[in-house]
């Protein structure tokens, strides 16, 4: 009989770490969305890091923005299209190379980020700090260690080629 109270991802331990982190990220974004919904225009939670990065770094290319966030360029391009439609960013080709697109906040985008930073971003950070009370800094250090470890030596390398011997 199926144990409906078992969390299959938890039960599988480290093997499903990626799935658990994805599930947790999706839940955090879903729970933060109503708070972010206080801002106008409404911007999905997943797009706020793009706005924060642009505010922090100024005008950057699409590729540079993807690298700053550590995400794939196609996803950044889609998000930028939505943010441009809201009037929060501009995307223009660079003078030196017409294939490169430079992204920057519009004056409306700058005002949006200022309002977000002063209000909802601060409240979200405080709520997450409360959730992680007593271990937040350690958690961030562990996440950085995992990210750095994957960059230095991917899982496929760590798993080695010996696992293929088991497949016939």
Automatic annotation (TrEMBL):
The keyword DNA-binding applies. The keyword Nucleotide-binding does not apply. Gene3D superfamilies: Winged helix-like DNA-binding domain superfamily/Winged helix DNA-binding domain. One of its GO terms (molecular function) is DNA binding. Residues 14-152 form the HTH marR-type domain. Keywords: DNA-binding. This is DNA-binding MarR family transcriptional regulator. It comes from Chelatococcus composti.
């Amino acid at each position: 009989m199926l144990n409906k109270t078992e969390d299959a991802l938890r039960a599988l331990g480290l093997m499903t770490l990626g799935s658990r982190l994805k599930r947790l990220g999706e839940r955090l974004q879903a729970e933060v969305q109503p708070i972010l919904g206080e801002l106008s225009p409404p911007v999905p939670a997943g797009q706020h890091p793009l706005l924060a990065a642009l505010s922090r770094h100024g005008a950057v290319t699409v590729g540079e923005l993807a690298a700053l966030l550590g995400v794939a360029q196609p996803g950044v391009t889609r998000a930028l299209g939505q943010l441009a439609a809201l009037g929060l960013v501009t995307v223009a080709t660079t003078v030196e190379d017409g294939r490169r697109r430079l992204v920057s906040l519009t004056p409306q985008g700058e005002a949006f980020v200022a309002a977000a930073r002063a209000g909802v971003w601060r409240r979200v950070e405080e709520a997450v700090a409360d959730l992680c009370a007593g271990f937040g800094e350690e958690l961030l250090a562990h996440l950085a260690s995992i990210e750095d470890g994957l960059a230095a030596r991917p899982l496929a390398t760590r798993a080695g080629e010996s696992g293929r011997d088991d497949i016939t």
